[in-house]
Amino acid sequence: MTGTKDAGRPLGVAVLGMGTVGTEVVRVLRDHADDLRSRVGAPLVLRGVAVRDISKDRGLPAELLTTDASALVARDDVDLVVEVMGGIDPARKLIGDALNAGKSVVTANKALLADYTGELAAAAEGSRADLYFEAAVAGAIPVVRPLIQSLSGDRVNKVVGIVNGTTNFILSAMDETGAAYDDVLAEATALGYAEADPTADVEGYDAAAKAAILASLAFHTRVTAADVYREGISKITAEDLETASAVGCTVKLLAICERVSAGPGEPTLEEGGKDRVSVRVYPALIPRKHPLASVNGAFNAVVVEADNAGRLMFYGQGAGGAPTASAVLGDLVMAARNKFYGGRAPGESVYAELPIAPIGDTPTRYHVNLQVEDRPGVLAAVADTFAQHGVSISTVRQQGHGDGARLVVVTHHAVESSLADTVAVLADMESVTAVTSVLRLEGTEE
Amino acid sequence: MTGTKDAGRPLGVAVLGMGTVGTEVVRVLRDHADDLRSRVGAPLVLRGVAVRDISKDRGLPAELLTTDASALVARDDVDLVVEVMGGIDPARKLIGDALNAGKSVVTANKALLADYTGELAAAAEGSRADLYFEAAVAGAIPVVRPLIQSLSGDRVNKVVGIVNGTTNFILSAMDETGAAYDDVLAEATALGYAEADPTADVEGYDAAAKAAILASLAFHTRVTAADVYREGISKITAEDLETASAVGCTVKLLAICERVSAGPGEPTLEEGGKDRVSVRVYPALIPRKHPLASVNGAFNAVVVEADNAGRLMFYGQGAGGAPTASAVLGDLVMAARNKFYGGRAPGESVYAELPIAPIGDTPTRYHVNLQVEDRPGVLAAVADTFAQHGVSISTVRQQGHGDGARLVVVTHHAVESSLADTVAVLADMESVTAVTSVLRLEGTEE
């Protein structure tokens, strides 16, 4: 790589955390210093890296390593802080301290941002520093910046993403091989695609944090993880994938951020009221021809629908050291340019303050799998139960005979509460042996 | 939509041109003023629209329309200029005047940018104004901003895009229906997907301008339209699509921007030399399983490959009034925010100054379609001709008999000049009735 020789005063960089992402960020800072200098206008100089264990050999001069992250952030010669340690504490305080001191921060910390963007953005605003976080959602895929900047003149109506690589690896493998959840999870763990404790991924917490961030940006409204309805994939069975396949679908863990109309009895947008925001993470059936259906393995993709832009899709590697580092370094160059040229990143935009729609109000389609007694009239009785609760049926498919008889019901759009009431009654019916699964169906036009 | 009430001094906007894009930009400026004000921090006020014919009813107050674009740009109360008139003159001078006067400019003008970005960027730099142009490439799809900003800490190696909707509509239709080029072009014209004079689209000029812009951004090197090797689709036949299909491919007009190694005898990157940039637009076979193969109709998509980010794909509507307006308005909000908060857009980055690799040096795979005499030894003679010119064959397929006998040869990577020499000899061979087509093959791993 090449670079110009004349440049401004060096900008000092502190890196907090040296896991896979931090290691790659440090490598690029050192190996590609010339290019970075040319792109920023001034040299980026690594002042230090905060690590937990200073004795481990990381191929770095010892004087660059410290266990005192606070002191590193506070150094006078540190202008920019890269936080890739993860977790809420001490990252929250370190980032706050940096921003309050006027140092710009680049972070990949979705859990922190999902709950504390407001606090951190206020600190950045107060000292005119930048807070960048492209790497917090979907790794190297630019989706934060497009939502904040590119779509700032449009009205976003929906964001649907596959934003967790671990669960997508598991569901893709279950779909391809027909294997059971536990077996595929064990394989994912062995391959390093799942953590020893996979809860944050498989129960949807990671995706929910990302959904909160995406919804905040898309709808100019502060959305936190607590606002996100969340179900994980740990109850998905091989049979779910099989029945999905039978109706031309696969199962994906989706993060869905959607603009929905005002609640019952509330003034609509046209009447001077407000739309609401529905944010939810759950495994759902999607048709195989849907663009997200072919996003397999550890890949991520995000579909954005806006009034004027129409449907956009962003696809790429959503995790891993190098891809995440790419996003971090892009933010770092931009933050450094702002330091050098006197610019500012766009601040938090939460003016719209749209209310959150409860999951019970959110209409979706459902795919209900029932084990039933194999005798005449069962289908009619089941259909009648749906009708009594105002849930309109799109298709019913009867499969198998005798003890293995099953009904697979696909509904039109229904609200969660009506469907829940329907399922409660179905479960009590004598002719219904079991409600095997209830999954949502997304990505159909209906 | 909702908006806050307190805001800064109004920012004046001039819109140059009121075609499909300008009309949509003006509509949003007027209909969504509250949202835009909340996002910018200050009201955006439309000062005027420059049009050619002032007598046409455009649903706007007469005092907003003018035929004097120069005077509109020069108004003291105009802070931001949106150029959506297209063409080189007078757009070039109007944008230059605006930038020289410190007014930020948002433009969708790919032809102008492909040749004059240097001049315009210098004007912007001189007055510390912004020049934004997301809408110039791939309509609503954010690709300019991701290349400039998100990937500014990465090394881009390749950009491959379907960036012209007209030609993609034509090739998609030929692929689906088996129809001839002229028939599909006539249909595209009737449907409004092709202009009365389709030359700029079908001969690849539009895609070449976009390729020049993408290459400039990807490689931090000034690339103009003249640097782009260009072939259009007007010679593509129904038979080309058919033989492509027979080898599991379709045909797409691709804009390819690629980092290639130093020329023969020149120092390599490792020896202190420089990589080169190959920029080319041509119809090429791509495997149906390649992500770009399923981008059909008027849609656009751009694939970016970078060292750390890996392969990213951006997909959406690449043309049309509303999608292009979405990109223009996103830029406008960013330019206006910079005016309000005192920020700056990233300026032109051309420090790398990589040389352009001539097309003759650029290795690609080829798909050569020959009409041959149906007698023993022809295949061997043809294969020998390829071998004599150092072009390695991947597969040969013999089709038909008698007068209709054909050979379809797919090569491994070969440089253009070797292939051209091969084809010249083939054309002179007695047993070769005709070289029916020579198309490149892209998107294979080989």
TrEMBL record, chains A, B:
The active site is at K210 (proton donor). It is an enzyme of class 1 (oxidoreductase). Pfam families: ACT (PF01842), Homoserine_dh (PF00742), NAD_binding_3 (PF03447). Pathway: Amino-acid biosynthesis; L-threonine biosynthesis; L-threonine from L-aspartate: step 3/5; Amino-acid biosynthesis; L-methionine biosynthesis via de novo pathway; L-homoserine from L-aspartate: step 3/3. Belongs to the homoserine dehydrogenase family. NADP(+) binds at L16, G17, M18, G19, T20, V21, G22, T23. Keywords: Amino-acid biosynthesis, Metal-binding, Methionine biosynthesis, NAD, NADP, Oxidoreductase, Sodium, Threonine biosynthesis. GO terms for molecular function: homoserine dehydrogenase activity; metal ion binding; NADP binding. Residues 367-443 form the ACT domain. Its EC number is 1.1.1.3. GO terms for biological process: methionine biosynthetic process; threonine biosynthetic process. L-homoserine binds at E195. This is Homoserine dehydrogenase. Catalyzes the conversion of L-aspartate-beta-semialdehyde (L-Asa) to L-homoserine (L-Hse), the third step in the biosynthesis of threonine and methionine from aspartate. Its cofactor is a metal cation. It catalyses: L-homoserine + NAD(+) = L-aspartate 4-semialdehyde + NADH + H(+); L-homoserine + NADP(+) = L-aspartate 4-semialdehyde + NADPH + H(+). NADPH binds at K110. InterPro entries: ACT-like_dom_sf, ACT_dom, Asp/hSer_DH_NAD-bd, HDH, HDH_cat, HDH_CS, NAD(P)-bd_dom_sf.
